[in-house]
Each structure stands twice: as C-alpha cells, then as structure tokens.
Specification:
It is a single chain. The strands form three sheets. Strands 5-2-1-6-7-11-10 form a seven-stranded mixed sheet, sandwiched between helices. The mean pLDDT is about 95. Helices cover about 30% and strands about 30% of the residues. It has a single domain, classed as Rossmann fold. The chain is globular and about 45 Å long. The protein contains six helices and eleven strands. It has about 180 residues and is α/β, with parallel strands linked by helices.
C-alpha cells in the first residue's frame, strides 16, 4: 500500500488531520503520522464564533505519531499531507520537516496543504510563482513567499493542492487523491 506522510504536532487541527487520516486508506493509501518525536499529540478543534474576530480553539482528540521527523525516509512516501491548526506555527522551524517538505517539491510528488499547513510550505521556500489558497489570515505567507493567493475552496498548481479550511475537505481530498493516482502511487 503506498504511503502518505502526515506531519503533526500539538495543536494540529482535528478535522484537518483526522478526515484525511481515515479517508486516505479508503483509496488504498496508508496514512503515516510523523511528529517532532514519537509520542501522543493533542489535536485541537477550530471553529468560528459570531462575537470573535478570530477562530476559537477547543481541545480535540489525541493522535500518536508513528515516526519522528528525523527518522523519515522520504523516498518511501508517495505524498505529503500538511494539516492546519496552530502546530505549523512552530513546526515550520524544524529542519527535518523543512527537508521533508522540500523533497516532495524537488521530486514533484503530490503535496496537500490545508489552512495553516501553508506555513510549512512557505518556510520550505517552495511557493515562488505558485498559486495557492489558505485560510485568509495566512494569505501573507503565500504572498511574502512569492506565491499568488486566491480565495477559493481548492487550488491545484502542479504537484501542490491547497484548501482554505476543513470546510473544503471534500473537493480538496478528491483533488489530492487524483494527484496521487496520476503520479502512479
């Protein structure tokens, strides 16, 4: 079964993570969870509130990583799925994760990024000239990295498929799986 790498950390968004974690095996892909260390991670639920200017955050499910970033043999993976939530804010500084993200772009393997996951793509320096979407508050991560931001549910640019938030998961996952299958994975 081809494998898709799913980097997470504490405060990865629960729907951004759990939906693809269970959806990928339905199409024959093994979802492999990676974290800074092999351990249990605490996911969070992000939602809107009519009286707040920013999303509210609640504790979500827990998910154990199968492997640490430094242990990842990137050539074993057919694709990369980058969840949102607050985790990318600190995960983007991990040199092993930056190496992983760059590899998928250097080898033109499918990459999916939803919501704050774009911060990992931006930190890896691979957005220049690409069109992408994300949650509106991360728009500048795309633009400051030389990319073109558009506000639409899903954007496919070469090997990269992006979505704004978990609300866009159905068309987003459809496009990511299409890229995986087109790549022969």
């Amino acid at each position: 079964m081809p494998k898709v790498l799913m980097p997470i950390g504490d405060a990865s968004e629960v729907l951004d993570t759990m939906y693809p974690y269970f959806r990928l095996p339905e199409d024959g892909y093994e979802a492999v969870v990676a974290g800074p260390e092999r351990r249990l991670y605490h996911l969070v639920e992000h939602d809107s509130h009519p009286d707040w200017d920013i999303t509210i955050e609640k504790s979500g499910y827990n998910l154990r990583s199968h492997i640490a970033f430094r242990e990842v043999q990137v050539s074993e993976f057919a694709g990369l799925f980058l969840s949102g939530g607050r985790a990318p804010e600190y995960l983007r500084y991990d040199p092993d994760l930056q190496r992983i993200v760059r590899y998928f772009f250097e080898t033109n393997r499918p990459v999916a990024s939803v919501c704050h996951g774009i911060e990992l793509v931006a930190a890896a320096g691979v957005l220049k000239g690409r069109t992408a979407t994300t949650v509106k508050k991360c728009r500048y991560d795309i633009e400051f990295s030389g990319g073109i931001y558009v506000d639409q549910p899903v954007v496919v640019d070469g090997n990269l498929v992006t979505a704004r938030t978990w609300h866009d998961h159905t068309p987003f996952m459809r496009e990511f799986i299409r890229l995986l299958k087109a790549a022969g994975s």
